[in-house]
Amino acid sequence: MTSRRSAGLTSRQCATLLSRAGHVVEALSPDPLCICAFTRHVRRVHRVPAFGRDPFGWLEAALAVYAAGAFDVLLPTQEQVAVLSRATDRLRERKVATAVPPFAALAMVQDKVSAFATLDRLGLPQPRSAVITGAREWAAWDAFPAYLKQPIGTATSGVRRLARRADLSDPVWSAGEPLLVQREVPGPLVMVQSVFAAGELVAFHACVRTGEGARGGASRKRGIALPAVRQHLAKLGSELRWHGALSADVILGEKGPVFIDLNPRLVEPVNALLSGVDLITPLLDLARDRTPTPQPSANPDVATHQLLLAVLGAAQRSGRRRAVLGELTSAALRRRDYAGSREELMPGFDPRGTLLLALAAGATLARPDAWRWFASGSVAAYALSPQGWRHLVDAS
Fold this sequence. Notes:
Layout (H helix, E strand, L loop, with lengths): L1 E4 L3 H12 L3 E6 L14 E4 L7 H15 L3 E2 L6 H6 L1 H6 L9 H5 L4 H10 L7 E4 L2 H6 L5 E4 L9 E4 L16 E5 L5 E9 L2 E13 L5 E6 L3 H14 L3 E10 L2 E8 L6 H5 L5 H8 L15 E3 L1 H12 L2 H13 L8 E2 L7 H16 L4 H12 L3 H9 L2
Parallel strand pairs: 1-2, 1-4, 2-3, 14-15
Antiparallel strand pairs: 5-8, 6-7, 6-8, 9-10, 9-12, 10-11, 11-14, 12-13
C-alpha cells in the first residue's frame, strides 16, 4: 500500500510509522531537501507548489501525482486538509481516498477568531479573550500579559506576546480583519490529539511539552492523562460531526485546563503510539471507508524527544556552542531529560536521518545561528496563508 504527505515534523513521524507498518510512502513538498527527504522511510519526494498562497495549485499538482502513481491513500498531515475538505466532490470524482472533515465544520475551527467563537458557544474553557476590530475594542482591553493573534497563522506565526499595551506600536487591525486577544495563562503546554469518525471519538492522546525546541516546537514530551480535556474534545467533535484528525493546544493553568488553539489536522503521533494509542490506523480506515476500531486509553508518563529539534532550539535560545554540545552530550549519555526517553524522529536505523542530525549539529557547533537555515523551510511549505484561506472560503 502506498501513502503520501507534505513536509514537516508530523509528516516525517507519520512516514516512519507507516513505513514500519509495511506501507510504501512518498511525499509532497516544494522543497526537495525537506525533512522527509532525509529518511529511508520515504521512497520519493515529489515537488509540488507551496501550499500556503495557492492551495488549489497545490491540489492540482497533488492529484496529478496521485493519479500517475496509482496510490491508495492521500493522507494530509498538515494544513492541506483545508483544500481537500473544500474539494471533496473533486476527490470523489477522481476516486481519491482520504479522510477530511466537512468544510463547514473545518471553517468553525480553522481561523482563531472562529475557533474562539465555537469554543465559547459550547462553553469549553478558554483564557479571558476578546475579538478586536479597531481602536475602541483595543482601548477596552486591560489584561496583560496577553497574546494578540491573527485569524490565520501556524507555528507561532501571526502571534504577538504583549507584556503591556505600549508593546503594540502599530494598529495591526488596520488591515480590516478581526484579531483575537487572549490573556496569558501561566502553565505547561499540552498537545492534544484525536481522531473522529463522523463525530464519534475513536482515538485520543495528550502529552505535555517538557522541552522547547526551535520556533517553540516540542523537543521533549511526556504523556499525560487528562480525562476532562478528553470530554471537552469529544463534545466539540460531536457537535461539529468531525471526521478525521483534530488537535488542540491546552494550557494547564491554576484553575484547570484552557484551550488556546485548535488545529484541524494531525500532530506528531509517535508519543501517542508509544503510549498505546494509534492515531494513524484509524485515519487510514476512514480514508478507505472502513469503520475504525476505537483506541484504548493511553498509558501516561511515556517520555519522548526529538533531538534534531532540541539541538536547533539550544542554538536559537542561547546562541552558544556550549549549549548545543550540552544537548548532544546529554542525549548521548542518556542523562537528565533524556533518561528513559525515546527518540521520535529516528526510532531505529536510519542513515539519512542520522546524516541530517549530524549536519545540523555540525553547523550549529560551528555557527549557532545556522539553526535558522534548518528551521526556516518546513512551516512555509505547509502553512496556510490568509490569502490562501480567502481563496478557499470564496471558492464556489
